[in-house]
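DATA SHEET
Item: assembly model
Revision: 1
Owner: S.N.
Input lines:
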Amino acid sequence: MSFDHPQGLWLLTLGVPILVFHFYKGRIRKMPVPMLLFWEQVIVEEEQRTAFKRIRHWASLLIALSALVLLTSAVSLPNVKGFTRVKARYALLLDNSPAMAALESGGRTRADLAVERAKSFLGTLAYGDQASVTDLSGTRIPFTSDLDGLAGRLRVPKPGPRSPLRDRVLEGLAAGEDVIAILFTDRLPQGVEDLLEHERLRVVRVGVPKDNSGWVAGLASRRPGDKSVTLSLKAQAFSKTEVDREEVLSFNGKPLARRPLHLAPGAPVDREWVLDPTKFPGSKLEDGGLVEVALEPADAFAVDDEASFVIPPLLPPPVIVFHPGQPSELLMHALETLQSGGLIRELNQAPLDRYAALRSKLGEGWIVVFDRVSPSPLPERGAILVLGAPGPGIVEKPAVIDWAREAPPNRRLDYAGLNIRKSRMLDGEPLVSALEGAVATWSSRGGRATVELGFALEDSDLAARPTFLLLLINFVEWASWRGLRSFRTQYAMGEPVRAERRLWFDDGELTFAEGDRAERIPVAQGVGQASPASGPGFVRMSAAGRSEWAAVNLFDADQSDFREKAGSVAGAPPPAPAPWHAKVPYALVAVSGVLLLLLAEWLLYQRGAI
Amino acid sequence: MVSQQKKWSLRGGAELPGAEGRAIVGLMAFDAAFLQTLEALNLLARRTLAGDDRAERLTPRKGASLEFADYRRYTPGDEIRYIDWNVYARHGNLFVKEFTAEENVHVSVLLDISRSMDFGGKFRAAKELAAALGYIGLSNYDTLSLFTFGSEVRPIKKFLRGKGRVFELLSAVDALEPEGQTDMKRAFGPALPRLRGRSLVLLITDFYDLSGYSEGIRELLAQRFGIHLIHLVSREEMAPQARGRFSLLDLETGQSKDATLLPRTLEAYVRRFRAFCADVEEFGRSHELAYARVISDDPLEHRVVEILRAGGIVEHRR
């Protein structure tokens, strides 16, 4: 036998004063009376009443000691093997995969049903049982015996990245050998067959198998210099019958076109939309925006019926070159080449003394090149290329030894054999490294992308190489769109929408808005302190007068497939509900027993038995 | 000079000078105001009682007191000095004035000293009552005798007269101790010592008599005593509070009985005790005897003035 609170056993020491009092009460005291006759008359009547009075004294002691034992047990909470119920612990796992957003009959999602079943399950547990709740993305409510409070805290989890189920189950079971994991999901789990077999994991299924069709893949692509974006999509029907739906193309919420879609069972179908502004006059596609391809009519799983994309502006950016008096001929020649190739819209030049007047007009749409000059401050927004700015730390003939091949401006570039007569050694993220230090750096944060070369074109043979033109093309492509973004344009549903680069402000709050839902995220030193998961659809991140959009898509054939999988193991059913008496706190039962005993004592007292 | 408001208290028969030369003796604590109250009281005799000596008690018989009663025609042999010459001058007939006789009464205080009185303060209260009533008698120039009784009557003081004997009375009362059993029939069988004429008996007892109190009182009635019944009870015996297991010990007989006192046992006892008190009162009423039930821990003045007056035992002097 064990006790939850063994210190409560000290209450048993109260038995000593009870016994003392009992024998004190039981002793016969002498009482002088002036005339015994009266007493004899009434006492004879009294003592003739019942034979129970012979044990009345001991009945009182028995009641008192029984009450003490009950009270002690109410405090110490004994666990007697084979007699008291062993307290159970359950780790409740809520599947928060996107498929749980599928609608079931009654208009509720599988996630709603899962939460409802979880609450019902908590209601079947015995008093003293403990439970924890974890969704499969790892958000966890730790073990508690306050089951009502836990049920009250249960909410439909946000769709999240579905980490390996087995890991989550094992995390839940790690609390002890007695823990049983209960998974509330819409499909039989894979990879946990051993846990199911040993009944450490039980599955509560919500929803029923059904047919579905939707987008299972999607990509927006654009070649440098192209004035169109190509959407490559893949649709699939998960059913035994053919499905006919309709694609609806929308731009910034306005439908642009629609076409029928015929899906044969099982086989994915590739679809493509070319977003050419000339084919959609008046649509302002060239400004860039939000594109959505929806499948109609809607089915029970709307999540995979919409493919969302954020497309860049299709107009090439304007360029302005600030120079000390005359621009570098090599630079201007290269830029003119880009302009003739349609990669830049217009080419401007101005001496540095005009920079102060023009600075306020240079926004995110501009590429600003500083040729052998470096004013302070540089523009707050836009793409900035600094070439051979004067300053300390000049090194003669630095030897290039490496370059950042993953950096977007260096895409497909090769700096091997680059000759530099002299260069300044730069601080920052190296783009090109020499033996003595970085001769070129790059940086990017929300709203501003910068590449700086420590040497002028005339001090190296870079301009004579194809590398330079490619560097400019990369820079224009990257810095006029992706390099200015803190966030990616595409996220998978359930994936945390996390900024890949520093935000455009250092401290404050960033607002995530998705449909009619908004969430504020604290930002410190340009980094968001949380990353909400969301989707499907568009998410807008805004703060300090600037915003970025991102598209969130499911694009997961496994999630869209609601058909029953072959070979799945159901395992043991969930534990049976505890009997009603197990839901009553033992302490309450024991204290009630004490009160009943005290009532019995009082009744015996009133009836003259004690 | 000690103030009249001062409370005098003496123990063991010692004396203290009091106001107007009075002294109070014994355990009893009488103050001057209470003594004045007692002096204003008279023992009430329901029957016409005749004593030997003049006293301050007015009787229907004509006597030689200073209090005018009536006129009657002169007859030879009447005292000439009682002729009202003023009436003779107006009417020409001789009338003599008659005065109310002031006669003393022989007051016998019969004090129960059985052991049953030694319970709940009854014995002390009985002694205080005996002293107070004796003081009233002596203040009225009655002849006072003090007897104790249990199973026999024992004279303690006989034929005291005058307030000057009060210390003697109080000392004697103070010295009394409870003893023996009550047997009124046996005690009152022999004639009580008495003076000529009738006597007033103040019977102070708890009426606990295993052989029955009524027979004993009838013996006194047969001796043509005027009898006042003063029934002493204590709150402890009226409403006992003890609960649990007890060995009940009879104070008089020494017999004991084990019993568990329960609420309903106590209720039954109380009913029984009330019935007993009602019996005694009914006995007194049926025999035209004054009856007063006195609770031992009531204030003495209340006991004497209120209860005994209400019971027809004392009255204010006219």
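QC remark: Chain A touches chain B through 26 residues (CB under 8 Å).
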